[in-house]
Amino acid sequence: MIRDITLGQYYQGNSPVHRLDPRIKILATIFYIAALFVVRDFIGFLVAFCFLEAVIMLSKVPRRFIWKGLKPVIFILAFTLIINMFMIDGEILVRFWVFHITKEGVRTALFMGTRLVLLIIGSSLLTLTTKPIGLTDGIEALLSPFKKIGVPAHELAMMMTIALRFIPTLLEETDKIMKAQQARGADFESGNIIRRAKALVPILIPLFISAFRIAQELALAMEARCYGCGIERTRMNAMKLKKIDVAGSLIFICFLAAVVLERILL
Asked: For 2, which DSSP code?
């Protein structure tokens, strides 16, 4: 289950999506998420799904690798579906004891579940097709106009990128600790929720120690390379918009226009 989390991982490739400017991809992801919350009908989600499918095809990232990233959030999806089905009033379809499932509840549950799936897949594509250094440079470039009002653009970009970059590392450490505990007879599967929560304590303590160790090693490595925040730094590869970035931006603008038209006309 832990290895199924794809957020923060980078999939090596040389596709048109990989070659897009990080700034374009970051902005596209932000507006894509906003577009999902603008949609109010399944037709809008169909438009978003078609656009997402086209991006996946262009990125050449295996679909199995993308879809397995949904496995860790199956519980959240199921919880969302159940809450919406039982908590929304309307035309009753099924009734048992004090509970009832309504037509409006089923529709809302499917609507929210679809939105969550599209959001997770779309967000994962950003990290799957963008190197960590590219994310850092892209975020810093987008935040640089706010330096005039005292916003530490470089520091914020570095913190966000490090946080994303070390998600796979910490997940790998968790997997190693769990296997070591299971080899010593630990059981994380059986029992009720309280018992399972107690069983996680032997995992959390070594994980915190490992996280602090990794952070210390990273700090020492940065200091050894004379890294210092607040210092104007140069880049080996300067970011410049190319024809592929313009084409990608135009395609994404067409997608946003389709979403807006769907909301206005339907």
From this structure: G
- pTM equals 0.74
pLDDT at position 165: 73
Cβ atoms 126, 23 nearer than 8 A: no
Neighbours of 178 (CB within 10 A): 19
Separation of alpha carbons 249 and 32, rounded Å = 12
**Digit-coded pLDDT (tens) for 232-255:** 666 666 778 888 989 989 999 999
Euclidean distance between CA atoms 127 and 134, whole angstroms: 10
- A 10 A CB-CB count for 89 gives 9
Residue found by looking up tokens 């399944």 in the block = 42
SS3 assignment, position 227: coil
- What is the pLDDT confidence band of residue 29, given thresholds at 50, 70 and 90? very high
- The helix/strand count (H/E) of the chain reads as 11, 2
**Residue 29: enclosing H or E segment and its boundaries?**
helix 22-38
Give dist(CA 168, CA 32) in Å, integer: 24
Mention every residue, 6+ apart, whose C-beta is less than 8 A from residue 198: none
